[in-house]
Each structure stands twice: as structure tokens, then as C-alpha cells.
Specification:
Layout (H helix, E strand, L loop, with lengths): L1 E4 L8 H14 L3 E5 L4 E7 L4 E5 L5 H4 L2
Parallel strand pairs: 1-2
Antiparallel strand pairs: 2-3, 3-4
């Protein structure tokens, strides 16, 4: 899981998601989380399918470790 934390006054925008996606080119993790402490977004990356899915909740550690 890769987490991008922004200040509370930073709006979560496409630019923020582009930034974490760029970082993920190096790490290739399955879960990306973006938060400004007020709003949180998590998506499951599936590069083999060329897709990503936004999740309702951030998964618990035992759900993503294996």
C-alpha cells in the first residue's frame, strides 16, 4: 500500500492522483490511498487488467497482507 498524505487545506484532485500513480510506477503496489486528513480515497490497482477500482473503505492490514 502506498499512501499520499496532503495538508487538510489541499483539495484531493486529479493532480494528486497523478502524483501517487507516478510514484507507483516505481513500487507497483496494489493499493493506493490519498488523504488530506478530511477526505480519504483508496483504489485497488490491477495492472494486469489495466484497471483500477475505487474502494468504499481502506482495507485492514490482514486483508492486504499475505
Amino acid at each position: 500500500m502506498l499512501v499520499e498524505c496532503k495538508a487538510p487545506d489541499v483539495r484531493i484532485s486529479q493532480k494528486v492522483f497523478d502524483q501517487i500513480a507516478l510514484y507507483n510506477l516505481q513500487f507497483s503496489v496494489s493499493y493506493l490511498v490519498v488523504t488530506n486528513g478530511m477526505n480519504h480515497f483508496c483504489c485497488l490497482m490491477e495492472p494486469d487488467k489495466g484497471t483500477y477500482t475505487f474502494l468504499k473503505d481502506i482495507p485492514a492490514y490482514d486483508q492486504i497482507s499475505g
